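EI: anyone free to look at a 281-residue chain?
SC: sure, send it
EI:
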Amino acid sequence: MTEAAKQVLTDLPIGASAHRKQSVADKAAIAAAFGRAAKRYDQSAEFQRIVGHRLMEKLPPMVSVGTRLLDLGCGTGYFSEQLAAKGYQVCAADLSEQMLAQAAQRCGDKVSYQQADAEALPFADNSFDVAFSTLALQWCQDLSVPLAELRRVVKPGGYVLFTTLVENSLKELSYAWQQVDQYQHVNQFLSQKTVKLALAQAGGQIHTLEFPPIIMKYQTAVELMKDLKGIGATHLHNERKAGLASRQTLQALERAYDEFRDEKGQLPATYQVCFGVIIND
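SC: here you go
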């Protein structure tokens, strides 16, 4: 195990705990984690690009002149730029100031920018025709809250498009860590049932609701963890063991994860993704 590999943090990914109120400190920690990753985010965001492109395919086929779109959780502005190229007037919004700075470097004056908390959006009612949010809402404690906020800022007849991670995401990594120690290394994700309940609470007409798995491939578990660290997905909502993983710990993790190695010698990382499209009413 190389020294670089040993520097991979064990305070891994993603998503909000289903049984704990999200605090201001949680949000600050999440923003800080993404802020630290902002400059290198795009190098590790292949999965995020795959999901976002699939969500873009669900946009209305025609874009009218002046159609306003909110890109919530815009990150480095990768999709803000592409949405602007389609003809939308884009507002790129993110919890992290550093991410917004990266988005501004990418998009310039093609879009506008706003720091924003998904649970309390700083926009007036009916401000947008479309809301687009990919792989950001899993950081919210109660999914119905940001969905209701997105509905509030979207005009009647407009669209809310979102993706989020659900139960069984990163199941291989979670299993492997369970063979190594008793600490939490992977956050819990909402069940499909809980997502459907949140949608019912938020209201609106469900146009699309799909839960396809997307499988990424790696040569080692450490490569996966480097990607997760690279996109800033390092905040855990529950307590964890402090410090870096030892060489022995990472070797044990690799042995446990190796049970999943396929016939091509690759290790799968399964993400269970929710794709949702709401028509506002």
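EI: Confidence is low (pLDDT under 50) at residues 1-21, 234-243.
SC: 👍
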